[in-house]
Amino acid sequence: MRAVVAEDLFLLRDGLVRLLEAHGFEIAAAVDGAPALLRALLDHQPDIAVVDVRLPPSFTDDGLRAALEARRQVPGLPVLVLSQYVEQLYARELLADQAGGVGYLLKDRVFNDDQFVDAIRTVAGGGTVMDPEVVAKLLGRRSRDEPITRLTAREREVLELMAEGRSNSAIAQRLFITEKAVGKHSTNIFAKLDLAPSTDDNRRVLAVLAFLNT
Amino acid sequence: MSSRLVLVMLLVSACVALCWRTWASGARIPKVWVARRLVPLVLMGIGLCGLLLAGSSGLPSRGLMLHGDLMLPGDLTLSGTAISRAASWRDMLLLQSAAFLAAGLWLLRRSAQQHSGQPRLIPARQPRWGWLLLPTLAILIMLLDHGLGSAVLVLAAVTMVIALGMVIRFPAAAADLATAGLIAAGLGGILFAANPPPVPLPGALAAVPGGPVTEAFAAVSTPLVLLAVVESAVIVAFGLWLVPRTVGPHVRTLLGLEPDAELAGRVEQLTQTRADAVDTAAAELRRVERDLHDGAQARLVALGMNLRAAERLIPTSPQAAMALVTEARETSAKALTELRDLIRGVHPPVLADRGLADAIRALALDTPVRTETDIDLPGRLDPPVESACYFAVAEALANAVKHSGARLVQIRIRHSPDPRSPYADPRPPYADPRAPMPPVPGLLRIEVTDDGMGGADPARGTGLQGVERRLGTFDGILAVNSPPGGPTMIIMEVPCALSSPRTSSC
Questions:
Q1: Contacts of A70 in chain B (CB under 8 A)
Q2: Are A153 and A127 part of one and the same domain?
Q3: Which of A2, B72, B175, B233 is the most core-located residue (most Cβ within 10 A)?
Q4: How confident is the model over B216-236, as a mean pLDDT?
Q5: Any domain includes A137
Q6: Which of A34, A53, A137 has the CB atom closest to B366's CB atom?
Q7: Which of A37, A53, A85 minimises the CB distance to B344?
Q8: What tens digit of pLDDT does each residue of B204-214 get?
């Protein structure tokens, strides 16, 4: 798999490149600024881009905007956005095109390289990965009259883990239930959120979107 | 006629004396009531008396003097000047009485306005004394008018136009002139009123042939003279009362005896808000220091100790070392979380990235209560103003969530360019239209409304007071309207400039 890495701090960029190479990724480009990132994304059209939100030249959200612009020109270009902090606002902007293949994680998650690489693979496969902190904040502001409240406690747990980008087997392992039970729960979730039958991956993305957008 | 007048005068003076006694002794009738109800009524009474008596006094009206000299019976000629003096005397009394009536009515209306309703957020507008210039000049012209004939009308018209322009353009100078004019008009009025001209009797004017000459003149009745003198004296007193309110401070400022009151007030306010700003900043720094000391720093120490212990354990028991390294990783993650929260409290990253509008939208998304935003800010504010406004809204939102029990919070933010500012369109004429707009001065208005139970009192909590102080640094104000039972509305207004949006770099 070919990857593009954008990070302005040399040490972190170097660390990311090493980590990805160690897990069998091919680094198409490693850049340190937003304009270079946009060029690299459009030229290489990589299988996955790992992008820091805050990049030169203005050191605000240039990285995010470059990634969004690239996805506008190449719909569905898989992008995993890393940040020192997470904002629901940015999560929504990433998810707005409903094309899937986006991730939004805290930089801390790099510490756990197995989970991090899993997340990268999920995004590269068109899935959606949201940081547990985003998910936790969303749960903090649920009000009563929303379709999401029709879910049982267990179904909500499954949906949360789904939003974090975990596969059915990972969810099963985490909740100490069988994979078949996870499948049943997710079918219920899709039904309760009125998601029309389609490929499982797509419905997972839509379920997460429904979760984030309510 | 004159006996009725004496009765009226007696009644009025009895009234005034009674009120004065009550007021001075501080008895049951409150001073405020006397000042607000009785003074206007007395003024109106004097004015009405003057109008009625002057009208029925038999003094000639102004129209007569235009006829030139008047042949009287016998050999006597009553000159136009004499008639004109008598007419002037009558007109002065009429004019002064009308002014008294108007002043009484104005006072009554003003006191009714001040009396009604709740205490106001914005203090009642100060009276603009400059407008007194117009009636003052009218009285002065009347006093100086002897033998001017019809030219006096032209003079009066020109003077009024000039005075009007002055009142509008230079209100302070107009007020000073009005004060001086009032004193002069009052003093002149006393002299003129005390020496009334002989009154040509109606019989004389009708030129009855063969009538006795001595009956052609009469003196003005004493009560009328008294009334005119009293009115002029009150005008002098009013002028003297105005001196410390208009001319006094200006003269003292001019002489360097005293700093400009407006400037002094501004300096005091700036000193206060600056001290507040420094205090707030110092408190904030202390909080950051404490948080860093207790949080991230302590965790880094633990991290170092763990790693050192792991270092020692690696040769002998790698398993235990592993556990320690895992713990060290978790500790570093916790330290990061704490640093992140700290940074968010100091300056939220999204505020730096996107500006106030998106930062408030992000804040609304993170709020547990449903929060709707209606924000129209086509540019960026100064970073310090942005930060103050952000934390002000955050505090208002936190209050709504914690105390009000609201189900819906609405945030509305607008920036209106100041239409009075000469820089409303800050571009110089013929500027390149592609050049970026310089910052537009104006007023930022933030409204935070919740449908909770209301009863918020900014005087009780420290949160809103802190917000008020913080906004005060930028001459901003905060108003809370929170009747028991809700809804609560918090309005903040900050004068600030809006700069053109930063163009995207990618």
A1: none
A2: no
A3: B175
A4: 79
A5: no
A6: A137
A7: A85
A8: 554 444 444 44
Asked if B362's CB is within 8 angstroms of A88's CB, the reply is yes
Pair A110, A146 in one domain: no
Beta carbons of B21 and B13 less than 8 angstroms apart? no
Q: Which residues of A touch B361 (CB under 8 A)?
A: 89
A89 contact residues in B (CB cutoff 8 A): 350, 354, 358, 361-362, 365
Q: Are residues A7 and A71 in the same domain?
A: yes
Is residue A59 one of the residues assigned to a domain?
A: yes
For B340, what's the count of Cα atoms within 13 Å in the CB-facing half-sphere? 16
Among B341, B372, B375, B506, pick the best mutation site for testing chain A contact (most A Cβ within 10 A): B506
B88-136 per-position pLDDT tens digit: 788 788 888 888 888 888 888 877 666 554 444 444 455 678 888 888 8
CATH number (domain holding residue A181): 1.10.10.10
Residues A147 and A121 in one domain: no
- Give which of A60, A65, A72 to mutate to test B binding, by max B Cβ within 10 Å: A60
List chain B residues with CB under 8 Å of A62: 505-506
Q: Is B401 on the interface with A (CB under 8 A)?
A: no
Question: How many contiguous H segments (helices) and E segments (strands) does chain A have?
Answer: 10, 6
**Which range among A165-174, B30-39, B202-211 shows the weakest confidence by mean pLDDT?**
B202-211
Is B210 within 8 Å of chain A by CB? no
Clarify whether residues A91 and A47 are in a common domain. Answer: yes
pLDDT of residue B468: 86
CATH number of the domain at A30, please. Answer: 3.40.50.2300
Q: Identify the domain containing residue A160 by its residue range.
A: 142-213
- Both A92 and A157 in one domain: the answer is no
Residue A120 sits in the same domain as residue A146: no
**Which residue, of A67, A97, A131, is where some domain finishes?**
A131
Q: How far apart are alpha carbons B318 and A1 in whole angstroms?
A: 35
Partners of B362 on chain A (C-beta within 8 Å) are 87-89
CA distance A115 to chain B (A): 15
d(CA B491, CA B446) in angstroms, rounded, equals 6
- The tally of domains found in chain A comes to 2
Type and span of the H or E element at A82: strand A79-83
Determine the Cα–Cα distance for residues B506 and B492; give it in Å rounded to an integer. Answer: 35
- 3-state DSSP call for residue B380? strand
Which residue in A35, A54, A140 is closest to B506 by CB distance?
Answer: A35
- Collapsing DSSP states into helix, strand and coil, what is residue A187? helix
CA-to-CA separations, B281 to A33, B216, B277, B465, in angstroms, rounded: 34, 88, 6, 15
Q: Which two tokens stand for residue B114?
A: 């001040």
* Chain B CB contacts of A137 below 8 Å: 365-366
Residues of A in contact with B343 (CB under 8 A): 84-85
For residues B42 and B15, the answer to whether their CB atoms sit within 8 Å is: yes
Residue with tokens 């235990």: B320
Q: Does residue B362 sit at the A interface (CB-CB below 8 Å)?
A: yes
CA distance A83 to A99: 21
**Final residue belonging to a domain, choices A131, A162, A181:** A131
Query: Residue B252 CA to chain centroid, in angstroms?
Result: 23
Question: With an 8 Å Cβ cutoff, are B367 and A57 in contact?
Answer: no
pLDDT, tens digit (0-9, with 9 covering 90-100), for B454-481: 887 777 777 888 888 888 888 888 888 8
CB A70: neighbour CB atoms within 10 A?
22
User: For residues A165, A170, A172 and A176, what is the CA-based torsion angle, rounded to 10 degrees?
Assistant: -120
The answer as to whether A136 is a domain residue is: no
- A117 assigned to some structural domain: yes
Does the beta-carbon distance from B362 to A65 stay under 8 Å? no
A124 with A146, same domain: the answer is no
Q: Where are the beta strands (DSSP E) in B35-128?
A: 70-71, 77-78
